[in-house]
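Q: How do we represent a protein-ligand complex in a form that can be generated token by token?
A: Start from the inputs.
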Amino acid sequence: MFCSGDPTMFKEYWERMGDKSSITITGWQSLSYFSNTSNICWFLEPEFEKEVRRIHSVVGNAVAEDYHIVVGNGSSQLFQAALFALSPANAPHPMNVVSAVPYYSSYPALTEYLKSGLYKWAGDACNFEEEEPYIELVTSPNNPDGFIREAVVNRGKLGKLVHDLAYYWPQYTAITAPADYDLMLFTVSKCTGHAGTRIGWALVKDREVATKMTKFIELNTIGVSKDSQLRAAKILQVLSNCCECARPGETENFFKHFRGQMTERWDRLRAVVKCSDLFSLPEYPVEFCNFFGDFFEAQPAFAWLKCREYIEDCESFLKSHKIITRSGRHFGVNSKYVRISMLDRDSTFNLLLQRLSTIIQNTH
Ligand code: PMP
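Then emit the structure tokens for the protein with 4'-deoxy-4'-aminopyridoxal-5'-phosphate bound:
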């Protein structure tokens, strides 16, 4: 499937890791609801917390010291916990939630589906002109277009920011500085590929916000699976170990290996697209990556493809050639754009290139 962001590409690495990334959970583990009653997030497994802090310090993509960690059932649950925590409980009107187009297609639905009295979707951050409180969602690198982003509204105390950093990992983009925003969301889904483990985490500066986010998860699911946290801890541990111990030239370093794979995929996709003027792709600046110690250009998890003017509906056009994508309409822009996953397994990615090549050959 080219339209979802299912990260099946990463499976071959974990298969090669074999039992190094396995854990055993005994029958007498995970009975209690509680993990650490002295922590604000009382259902956070200490082992998972330790590995989250460690991976950020090894990769250098976020400052984790002095931050509270809240674990969630994927970053999707933490996103909702953040809206709950940042919206005042007794305001006269629901809080505006905005994000600059093209924004992650799930934000409007996640914000609106419960018709909350606390917050409401207010659309494109670039068009937000109200002198009212708001929450701005900043996704960086952005899903769908892969660009590094900053907040666009900047209306001082009226605004609260949520930074969704799901893709701020070195297989996708240069790590230029450790992020130190007030509220940052991460997920194993896009970092290691373990989307089915349903584990995300928030780094939260403010104690009260962390407490309210924890309350949301308590009310929503009474915590987060300990089994999943322990598994995610093991996976993150393997990741940190491979970064610290892999010798130069080896492919065992996860990020190095997948940076190579992503470069190859992007080079092949660009080579196909360049054969005609039917489609175009964004160009990214070359930046210095502190993690790898060299320069490279972003190679995002999604290709944000634009069709030529005379193709009104790019999604339907590609669908008629057996390529399933997600239309720009879902991301707040027009149907000339589509998003295509770059994280599918090799066989599916090869099929995508084959079918794109066929379209291009036949329209010459
Ligand atoms: N944020 C962004 C920007 C995403 O692309 C995704 C997954 N597509 C998520 C959050 C949700 O991730 P999770 O699997 O952790 O719920």
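The pocket of 4'-deoxy-4'-aminopyridoxal-5'-phosphate is lined by residues 5, 74-76, 104, 139, 143, 164, 166, 187, 189, 195, 200 (CB under 6 Å). The first helix runs from residue 11 to 17.
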